[in-house]
Amino acid sequence: MDRSHRPSLALGHSRRRFVQGLAGGALAAVGARHLGWAADSPSVSQAGATLCGTEFNLEIDALAVNLTGHPAVATAVNGRMPAPLLRWREGDDVTLRVFNRLSVPTSIHWHGMIVPADMDGVPGLSFDGIGPGETYVYRFKVNQSGTYWYHSHSRFQEQTGLYGPIVIEPRRGERHHADREHVVLLSDWTDLDPEHIYRTLKRQSNYFNFDRRTVGGFVDDVRKQGWKPTMADRRMWGQMRMDPTDLADVSGHAYTYLLNGSTPAGNWTGLFRRGEKVRLRFINGSSMTFFDVRIPGLKLTVVAADGQDIEPVTVDEFRIGLAEVYDVIVEPKDDRAYTLFAQSIDRSGYARGTLAPQLGMQAEVPPLDARALLTTMDMGMGHDMGGMDMSAMAGMNHGAVGHGATPHHAPVGYGPNVDSLAMQPQSRLDDPGIGLRDNGRRVLAYADLHTLGGPIDHREAGRDVELHLTGHMERYVWSFNGQKFSESEPLRFNYGERLRLVLVNDSMMNHPIHLHGMWGEVESEQGEFLVRKHTITVQPGQRLTYGVTADALGRWAYHCHLLYHMEAGMFREVRVERASREAANS
Amino acid sequence: MMRCRRLALLYAVLGPLAGSPALGVDPQPPAPTTSGQGTSSEAAHVPPDPPQHTMGDMDYRQMADMMQMDDRGRTGMVLFDQLEWRNSAAGSDFTWDGEAWYGGDTDKVWLRSEGDRVGGTTQNARADLLWDHTFARWWSLQAGGREDFGAGPPRTWAAIGVQGLAANWFKTEATFYAGEQGRTALRFKSEYDLFFTQRLILQPEAEANLYGKSDPERQLGSGLSDLEIGLRLRYEIRREFAPYAGVVWSRQFGGTADRVRASGGNPSDAQFVAGLRAWF
Fold first, then answer.
1. Does the pLDDT of residue A41 top 80, yes or no?
2. B12 vs A contacts (CB less than 8 Å)
3. In chain A, N or C terminus with fewer CB closer than 10 Å?
4. CB contact under 8 A, A51 and B4
5. Numbers of helices and strands, H then E, in chain B
6. Does the beta-carbon distance from A171 to B18 stay under 8 Å?
7. What is the pLDDT of residue A96?
8. What is the distance in angstroms between the Cα of B44 and the nearest Cα belonging to chain A?
9. From start to end of A219-306, where are the E strands?
10. Which whole-number Å values give the CA distances from A156 to A138, A159, A160, A195, B47, in the listed order?
């Protein structure tokens, strides 16, 4: 982090400009109009931030930017924020020389890439990190295809811009034909120093929540629902010291949401010709933001999840968790502009771009949806609270609930830094998530995802490893099983084994959990293979299971991809070891 | 970048040529996934090679330094909950109430102070220096010392208590003190934030002090000595910076009230206050 370069709290300027950003975008500072990443499109000649081949030189340096009217310093690759698009080909051996021009150590992690442990880019586990003035040479064979991304794994450099897309062309051609494609990389930009954001969350964790319950809301609820249900509801939340409006730790109060590095006002535009099939490669490269994505007027046919081809499924909208990737095909039939609309989960802002037949066009930007409130289901209390008028609670949808889930009671005794336990977690794979239930649109859920070609390992899992996602919002402490990284021992996997990871989300937040080096194969409640992913979002009060084949020797990171949750302790080391060594250790 | 495009085109042409004839079918046909059989994904998946360099074991401190990630990191905060002016009968009165802490998630050093100044002289003031240890989901144990200063002789106390969040977000402190010459004291304080808007916040607050025996030199009687109830309406220009206005009703009881009366004061008083709440 270039702390010294970054301003401290700076919100004195026009709120509107802050939210909308500057039309010029980040690269005003380097004098280029950034048109993003497109292949086979008329704007390709301007897509200067694409690198391809097998040899890459990446230079990490600080970059002066101005996205909101306030000068700030980003962390850039080859002078670009976001970092350049890397195009690889399946089967190639690639060499990436990463040179650090910063005054602090850095690193690059190839998110979702199956690479040897020493190429994975996590300082402390994979390698020593890349010191100032040093170069690290990453070398690996590309054995997969699809959309991925890369980002720093050092401190908060991901928040300041060190993230970029990776597109790998399949050796045997794309399964789903498209006439052209665009990468759509979503992120959250802040003019604040990330160190300041983290400290602020530790001091007052609800600092960035400007949608808290008010006296007026109480009066409205009494009028609509009556005194008793309203009081019961307030008493329940009050007993738990939980806030049903707590959907995002960092909101649009601090963030300007970006699409391919452009602010909403900057309006990144991707071109198409009427009747074409356009492949959109959505990547959530943000540090703390879940996005709900739609393109009013277009159906979205999701054809890949986390780089893996799936049975095409057509939806109106999808939620993309942090670090998740969805490839979507759209077929615009008209010569008009369409808005790419990605609102944050807490409806405090949005990233926006445009698909259009020519530059300079734009379509209506829809209003932000109403903000949902957390429900007892999100607390892992099931959906049968004695005496509670559940129909009165906003956001409930019994239809979307996975009925018949076996309650797995959370073990107690996690210590004082865990503020809630899910007593009746549910599978809920068909639940699109809070704020998307019953919104009148067809919204993607994990149950809709079916990776083609089956799992990478047909064996039954030999054992279950159960981990609870825990935390304390008020103190801003996050952990697995109540243990922060500093308090935990590595999880040990035996080389070659197939095991099942069981994640139970005891907390009230969505957590995108990322295992390095190995795929996670999400199972249905009945244990059938659903989807292969590198990052798996576990909803509040949800119990989710996935198969893992421990075929990657070495030390790996396993963590929540919410950047400040990871920093606050929601991180584990996974060691894949040969059985003999495992036996010696036990 | 033109090279990218040509390569892509070349690849798009060559790819199917290279792949399809060999298979004789559509590229990468979805394989039937029957249990007990290898899947097409299984055939396609290539595990990574073992690392050529493995990282040696290191302790947490070294690991945290290398990762630049440290969940044992320490944070601090300074909060002036009240910096306020009161219009008392005796003239203008300045009071303060604040705290500062520094430490990790479980153990912190905690400093608390409150007091008032009338006409440039500190009247009744104290400072607590405490070790704060989180022991329950919503509560921490505090232990340390307290020093009373201002008018009258200074008093030193040992302190032990709890603070935390009671149900419904009442921020609550309860501390027991033991001083020299068998003096004992109890202090309770609780406050709540009521949101009218996201920035306009009403804070009701109550504080009570009890003493085991009277301390004439500091104008204190035994038993319930004083109770103060405040209502402060603040506007958070920023979360960290909020001017406020409010009313405070305070009342002395028992021997303490007698002493106030004896010196011509009124043991029950309602005052308008204006001040600033600030933290960093």
1. no
2. 169, 173
3. C
4. yes
5. 4, 13
6. yes
7. 98
8. 8
9. 255-259, 268-271, 278-284, 291-294, 300-305
10. 21, 5, 7, 8, 30
For testing the chain A interface, which of B137, B199, B279 should be mutated: the one with the most A CBs within 10 Å?
B137
Report pLDDT digits (tens) over A131-162.
999 999 999 999 999 999 999 999 999 999 99
Per the CB < 8 A criterion, the answer to whether A449 and A531 are in contact is yes
Q: Which of A188, A233, A186, A187 has the alpha carbon at shortest distance from A208?
A: A188
What residues 416-455 of chain A have any CB closer than 8 A to a CB of chain B?
416-419, 451-455
Q: Which residue has the tokens 């097409």?
A: B40
A202, A203, A453 member nearest B30 (Cβ): A453
Residues from chain A contacting residue B72 (CB–CB below 8 Å) = 484, 486
The packing angle between helices A215-225 and A227-240, to 10°, is: 130
Query: Maximum Cα–Cα distance for chain A, whole Å?
Result: 68
Give the tokens for residue A290. 């879940």
Q: For residues B227 and B253, is the Cβ–Cβ distance under 8 A?
A: yes
pLDDT (tens digit, 9 = 90+) per residue, A297-351?
999 999 999 999 999 999 999 999 999 999 999 999 999 999 999 999 999 999 9
Nearest to A200 by CA among B177, B77, B110: B77
CA distance B149 to A545: 61
Q: What is the pLDDT of residues B232-248, one digit of tens each?
A: 999 999 999 999 999 99
Tell if the CB–CB gap between B279 and A89 is shorter than 8 Å. no
A11 to B169: CB separation less than 8 angstroms, yes or no: no
- For residue B168, which of B187, B190, B147, B197 has the smallest C-alpha distance? B190
According to the 3-state scheme, what is the secondary structure of A405-467?
CCCCCCCCCCCCCCCCCCCECECCCCCCCCCCCCCCCCECCHHHCCECCCCCCCCCCCCEEEE
Is residue A154 classed exposed, middle or buried when 0-12, 13-18 and 19+ CB atoms within 10 A define those classes?
buried
Comparing A506 with A12, the larger pLDDT belongs to A506
- CA contacts within 13 A on the Cβ side of B103: 15
Any B CB within 8 A of A139 CB: no
Strands A325-330 and A338-344: unpaired
